[in-house]
Amino acid sequence: MTMHPLLARIRNIIADPRREWPLIATEPRDPMRLFVSYVAVLAAIPAISGFIGSSLVGVSVSAGRVHDSIPFGLLRALISYLFSFVIVYLTALAIDAMAPLFQTARNFRNALKLAAYSFTPVWLVGVVLMVPGLRFLAILGLYAIRLLWTGLPPLMGTPRPKVLAYAGAIVVAAVVITLLMAVIQAALTALPFQGPADD
Fold this sequence. Notes:
The chain is mainly alpha-helical. It has one domain. The chain is built from 9 helices and 3 strands, in the order H-H-H-H-E-E-H-H-H-H-H-E. A 3-stranded antiparallel β-sheet has the order 1-2-3.
């Protein structure tokens, strides 16, 4: 039985990235198709899981169980989902812009591939957001750093001695971008609603 291409890509990039990255490097995939066929699907995992966890499951506190209101939860999930695309795109811009600092030729198409596929474990682990008590498992998303590190040479042509420093710079840039988006999301979701509703 043949595995669906999306599932095969997820399995291969997680289980054997050193073999999968060279294949990805040769694919003539345009940015829009990458967003539609890959990012759009995987980024939905933490968005939907977060909505379920905060609005339907709720968080246990001393006074009982607290839920976000459905409208608030939906708004937050939608913004989180849309911001996933922004984070990938801005991270790709950072990868491309920093390339010359690490003896690497600029290549935005491959930088976008590197950013999108490196976020795979972050999105997959997002399923734990359905159970607020398991959110600490989101740390498993740090596997993305390994994907990034192994993907730099085949996708960006980065010299081996520069890979570690380049990967570190990308991680810092991605963290800053993600934190900035989180601040903007918090500001946006605070505007139309007055906060979580208790059961």
